[in-house]
From TrEMBL:
Main location: other
Cofactor dependency: heme
Pfam families for this protein: p450 (PF00067)
Residues binding heme: 447
Name recorded for this polypeptide: Cholesterol 24-hydroxylase
Domain of life: Eukaryota
GO biological process terms, semicolon-separated: cholesterol catabolic process
One term under GO cellular component: endoplasmic reticulum membrane
Subcellular location: Cell projection, Dendrite; Endoplasmic reticulum membrane; Microsome membrane; Postsynapse
Length: 489
């Protein structure tokens, strides 16, 4: 009698699972019918869509962005990708880029950004500035952060930027004296981390002099963890990966705990009326106080943003500097011209003023061209909630739209001879790229740290250009290997 009941239950359970699976397959079929008029590469399978191709690309040494570029050449500037019932439309058309990125109406795709809320189960970027998809949640934070990153405020922090680049210079001179090669990518990684710690949080850790710093290792591990988690949602399921996963979770915790400590210390100092550094943290706490932002949820969000600044700001800037140095090393004529400009503007001056930054016309062109070829945060995603016509194709609402700056900045439709490193593209008299160049994203969700990173990028160059020749300190191969891994997110 009992076994009969068990059989009944099993039968109904199996029927329910089978019906649910069938219903899901019908839903996927319906989604295919809805979007299959949009061109795209052939799917690997009905259910998985293009996911196996992504996994294969992720495991190979190739950049996944190069695959997207290849598809843009083959299928045009608008093409479709499938993963189960989820549709991503890759868009590289200036008009649609302008419409969607410039308007607050199109929110970030929650599916993509929610995946960074946690890192293997540990709160990571949470609902901080990069990951907040909800407009109100994002806007409230951005209002508090904006003044701290304004040019007016950053002007007052020039002393620290100069001090940090001076340190890099001293370090490079020490290395040059010993006639050993310097791995520039490692050095700029240390300097950018130092700058963010000092300028943003008033903490001087001097990573250039530290070997094996737990904080620096934690930032690196989290960045690696992000790539692993995003590329392979099943990574944590395999026992062989458990040790790595635990290390990444510990790293995420260390970052948050450090943020907690630094923020609490500053709050107490402000409450006690102590003299506090005039840095970004003080500015943020002051604005938060004025806006009465002090609930437990706000506190968690402040920690989300602490982690966000390091994750969004350090590697992006360090990689750009590394790529710029690499290209300067490869193009002696460009290097010579940039050096002449720096010499002319600075002469014998040691420190760069905020006003000087605007005078480095050619150096800025070099940096812009670097971000064209190597956008260190290579895109953004929006959720399309309503039907839209893009490039003559009707795109039904209910899908994700991906904008890859890497792809659009390398398309010969927009940039002639795209693989050539040519700073002349950004000459004042050259035609301005029209919504096909957006290394810092565009519109309301544009990078908060753009000015910050520009100051950070110009200051070390004064030294590279005045005092050392690239052959003295470049280890291009090593640097290239490092930066390529990081680009391929
Ligand atoms: C070369 C350097 C940098 C590049 C290329 C870059 C690029 C970008 C891009 C493409 C986005 C949009 C991301 C998305 O939509 O998913 C972004 C957002 C952001 N970046 Fe940067 N970034 C750089 C440096 C920095 C620095 C130094 C900081 C801070 C210290 C920073 C903080 C942020 C923040 C907070 C956001 C979110 C803005 C918002 O949605 O309100 N970035 N960045």
């Amino acid at each position: 009698m009992i076994s009969e009941w068990v059989l009944y239950v099993m039968f109904y359970l199996l029927s329910a699972v089978f019906s649910a699976f069938l219903a899901y397959c019908l839903y996927v079929h319906h989604i295919h019918q809805k979007y299959d008029h949009i061109p795209g590469p052939p799917r690997d399978s009905f259910l998985l869509g293009h996911t196996p191709t992504f996994s294969r690309a992720a495991k190979s040494d190739n950049l996944i962005q190069d695959l997207f570029l290849e598809w843009a050449d083959k299928y045009g500037p608008v093409y479709r990708l499938n993963s189960f019932h989820y549709i991503v439309i890759e868009v590289h058309c200036p008009e649609a880029t302008k419409t969607m990125l410039m308007s607050p109406k199109y929110l970030k795709d929650p599916f993509v950004y929610k995946r960074l809320f946690n890192l293997f189960g540990k709160r990571f970027l949470g609902t901080g500035l990069v990951t907040a998809a909800d407009h109100d949640v994002w806007y409230r934070q951005r209002r508090i952060m904006d003044p701290a990153f304004s040019s007016t405020y950053l002007r007052s922090l020039m002393g620290t930027f100069n001090e940090m680049s001076e340190r890099l210079m001293d370090h490079l001179e020490e290395i040059a004296d010993t006639k050993t090669p310097a791995v520039m990518h490692d050095l700029v990684n240390c300097v950018t981390l130092d700058v963010i710690c000092k300028v943003a949080f008033g903490v001087d850790l001097n990573f250039l002099k530290q070997t094996d710093s737990p904080f620096q290792n934690a930032v690196e591990l989290c960045l690696r963890g992000m790539v692993l988690d995003l590329r392979d949602p099943f990574f944590a399921l395999f026992p062989k990966n458990w040790k790595t996963v635990q290390q990444i979770k510990d790293a995420a915790e260390l970052l948050r705990k450090t943020g907690e400590k630094w923020i609490q210390k500053r709050k107490t100092a402000i409450e006690n009326g102590e003299d506090v550094p005039k840095d970004i943290l003080t500015q943020i706490l002051k604005t938060a106080e004025e806006e009465k932002v002090n609930s437990a949820k706000d506190h968690e969000q402040m920690l989300d943003n602490f982690v966000t600044f390091f994750i969004a700001g350090q590697e992006t800037t360090a990689n750009q500097l590394s790529f710029a140095i690499m290209e300067l090393g490869r193009h002696p004529e460009i290097y010579k011209r940039a050096k002449a400009e720096v010499d002319e503007i600075l002469g014998t001056k040691r420190d760069i003023s905020y006003e000087d930054l605007g005078k480095f016309t050619y150096l800025s062109q070099v940096l812009k061209e670097t971000l064209r070829l190597y956008p260190t945060a290579p895109g953004t995603n929006r959720w399309l909630h309503e039907d839209m016509v893009i490039n003559g194709l009707k795109i039904p609402g209910g899908c994700s739209v991906a904008f890859s700056s890497y792809v659009s900045q390398r398309m010969d439709m927009y940039f002639k001879d795209p693989l050539k490193f040519d700073p002349e593209r950004f000459d004042v008299n050259a035609p301005k790229p029209y919504y096909c160049y957006y290394p810092f994203a565009l519109g309301p969700r544009t990078c908060l740290g753009q000015v910050f990173s520009q100051v950070m990028k110009h200051t070390p160059h004064k030294h590279n250009c005045t005092s050392l020749s690239p052959s003295e300190f470049l280890d291009i191969q090593n640097m290239q290997a490092n930066v390529c891994i990081l680009l391929d997110v």
